[in-house]
Amino acid sequence: MPQAHVEGSLPYLDMVPFAQAVIAAAPDRLIWGTDWPHGKRSRRAAPPNEGDLLDLLAVIAPDQALRHRILVDNPARLLDLRLIRCVGLAQKAL
User: Fold this and answer.
1) Cα separation of 76 and 85, whole Å?
2) Which residues are CB-contacts of 43 (< 8 A; sequence separation ≥ 6)?
3) Torsions phi, psi for 7 (to 5 deg)
4) Where do runs of H (alpha helix) occur along the chain?
5) What is the pLDDT of residues 21-61, one digit of tens each?
6) How far apart are CA 48 and CA 46, in angstroms?
7) Which residues are catalytic?
8) Is the Cβ–Cβ distance between 31 and 75 less than 8 Å?
């Protein structure tokens, strides 16, 4: 786990090449998870900011269609939740 964070930048930027390699290897087998609620890591360490983690996903997967696959299509296929697909289609229609 990365131990350093430059104030004012996104956390875990050192993990971007690894995450992109995972996406390249199996884009249809990847889903997003933030590990929420975050367990207590230490008294000094604050839990990650969910907004920063989602911003990081945009760095890891800059293509909107790929992010949609990771956030909507792959979980829907895995969990067979047709509702997720409906929400995704409704958002596209707006």
Assistant:
1) 7
2) none
3) -55, 135
4) 16-25, 50-60, 64-68, 74-79, 82-93
5) 999 999 999 998 876 666 666 666 677 788 888 899 999 99
6) 6
7) 35
8) yes
* Alpha-carbon separation of residue 22 from 17, 60, 62 (angstroms): 9, 10, 14
CA distance 39 to 48: 10
13, with CB counted inside 10 A (0-12, 13-18, 19+), is: middle
What 3-state DSSP class applies to 52? Answer: helix
**Whole-structure pTM value:** 0.68
8-state DSSP, 9: S
Which of 18, 16, 22 is CA-nearest to residue 62?
16
Using the 8-state DSSP alphabet, how is residue 48 labeled? P
Residue 84 near residue 75 (C-beta atoms within 8 A): yes
